[in-house]
Protein backbone atom coordinates (compact mmCIF):
# COMPACT_ATOMS: atom_id res chain seq x y z
CA UNK A 1 0.00 0.00 0.00
CA UNK A 2 1.21 3.49 -0.84
CA UNK A 3 0.69 6.32 1.61
CA UNK A 4 1.53 10.02 1.38
CA UNK A 5 3.18 11.98 4.19
CA UNK A 6 3.07 15.77 3.89
CA UNK A 7 5.64 17.83 5.83
CA UNK A 8 6.27 21.56 5.39
CA UNK A 9 4.10 21.59 2.26
CA UNK A 10 6.07 18.77 0.61
CA UNK A 11 4.47 15.44 -0.18
CA UNK A 12 6.53 12.29 0.33
CA UNK A 13 5.29 8.85 -0.67
CA UNK A 14 5.98 5.71 1.34
CA UNK A 15 5.20 2.06 0.82
CA UNK A 16 3.79 0.04 3.71
CA UNK A 17 4.72 -3.62 4.05
CA UNK A 18 2.11 -6.37 4.40
CA UNK A 19 2.42 -6.86 8.18
CA UNK A 20 -0.51 -6.85 10.61
CA UNK A 21 0.90 -3.68 12.18
CA UNK A 22 1.14 -1.88 8.82
CA UNK A 23 -2.43 -2.86 7.90
CA UNK A 24 -3.63 -1.67 11.32
CA UNK A 25 -1.74 1.62 10.85
CA UNK A 26 -3.36 2.10 7.43
CA UNK A 27 -6.79 1.70 9.06
CA UNK A 28 -6.06 4.83 11.15
CA UNK A 29 -5.53 7.06 8.12
CA UNK A 30 -5.87 9.95 7.53
CA UNK A 31 -3.87 11.33 10.45
CA UNK A 32 -2.31 14.65 11.36
CA UNK A 33 0.40 14.27 13.99
CA UNK A 34 2.79 16.49 15.95
CA UNK A 35 6.40 15.32 15.66
CA UNK A 36 9.30 15.63 18.07
CA UNK A 37 12.93 14.61 17.74
CA UNK A 38 14.29 11.48 19.39
CA UNK A 39 18.05 10.80 19.66
CA UNK A 40 18.89 12.83 16.54
CA UNK A 41 17.81 9.92 14.34
CA UNK A 42 14.03 9.93 14.18
CA UNK A 43 10.90 12.02 14.51
CA UNK A 44 8.26 10.46 16.74
CA UNK A 45 4.54 10.99 17.31
CA UNK A 46 1.88 9.49 19.52
CA UNK A 47 -0.77 7.46 17.72
CA UNK A 48 -4.44 7.53 18.71
CA UNK A 49 -4.27 3.86 19.75
CA UNK A 50 -1.88 0.92 19.91
CA UNK A 51 -1.34 -1.17 16.77
CA UNK A 52 -1.72 -4.92 16.32
CA UNK A 53 1.83 -6.34 16.33
CA UNK A 54 0.91 -10.02 16.01
CA UNK A 55 3.49 -11.93 13.99
CA UNK A 56 6.06 -9.12 14.25
CA UNK A 57 9.70 -9.96 15.01
CA UNK A 58 10.89 -9.22 18.57
CA UNK A 59 13.29 -6.48 17.44
CA UNK A 60 14.24 -4.44 14.39
CA UNK A 61 16.90 -1.89 13.51
CA UNK A 62 15.64 1.48 12.29
CA UNK A 63 17.28 2.71 9.09
CA UNK A 64 17.03 6.08 7.39
CA UNK A 65 13.73 6.17 5.52
CA UNK A 66 11.98 3.62 7.71
CA UNK A 67 8.48 4.24 8.98
CA UNK A 68 8.18 2.25 12.19
CA UNK A 69 6.07 1.61 15.27
CA UNK A 70 7.65 1.40 18.73
CA UNK A 71 5.28 -0.95 20.55
CA UNK A 72 6.45 -0.29 24.16
CA UNK A 73 5.48 3.39 23.88
CA UNK A 74 2.79 3.07 21.19
CA UNK A 75 4.31 5.69 18.91
CA UNK A 76 5.15 6.19 15.27
CA UNK A 77 8.77 6.78 14.28
CA UNK A 78 10.08 8.21 11.00
CA UNK A 79 13.84 7.62 10.74
CA UNK A 80 15.84 10.35 9.01
CA UNK A 81 19.17 8.73 10.04
CA UNK A 82 20.10 5.13 10.80
CA UNK A 83 19.16 4.13 14.35
CA UNK A 84 22.36 2.19 14.97
CA UNK A 85 21.02 -0.67 17.09
CA UNK A 86 18.27 -3.27 17.22
CA UNK A 87 15.42 -2.13 19.41
CA UNK A 88 13.13 -4.61 21.11
CA UNK A 89 9.56 -3.72 20.26
CA UNK A 90 10.42 -1.77 17.08
CA UNK A 91 8.23 -2.87 14.17
CA UNK A 92 9.06 -1.56 10.69
CA UNK A 93 5.84 -0.61 8.88
CA UNK A 94 7.30 0.52 5.57
CA UNK A 95 9.77 2.81 3.86
CA UNK A 96 9.81 6.35 2.50
CA UNK A 97 10.62 6.99 -1.15
CA UNK A 98 14.37 7.22 -1.79
CA UNK A 99 15.91 10.52 -0.73
CA UNK A 100 12.87 11.64 1.27
CA UNK A 101 14.10 10.83 4.80
CA UNK A 102 16.06 14.06 5.25
CA UNK A 103 12.84 16.12 4.97
CA UNK A 104 11.85 14.78 8.38
CA UNK A 105 14.95 15.98 10.26
CA UNK A 106 13.26 19.24 11.28
CA UNK A 107 9.57 18.52 10.65
CA UNK A 108 7.16 19.47 13.44
CA UNK A 109 3.92 18.16 11.90
CA UNK A 110 2.95 15.49 9.39
CA UNK A 111 -0.27 14.64 7.61
CA UNK A 112 -0.53 11.03 6.49
CA UNK A 113 -3.10 9.71 4.04
CA UNK A 114 -3.71 6.69 1.85
CA UNK A 115 -3.02 7.07 -1.86
CA UNK A 116 -5.58 5.45 -4.14
From TrEMBL:
Pfam family, one: Cyclophil_like2
Name of the protein: Cyclophilin-like fold protein
Coiled coil: none
InterPro entries on file: Cyclophilin-like, Cyclophilin-like_dom_sf
Lineage: Bacteria, Bacillati, Actinomycetota, Actinomycetes, Kitasatosporales
Residue intervals passing through the bilayer: none
Ranges where the Cyclophilin-like domain occurs: 5-106
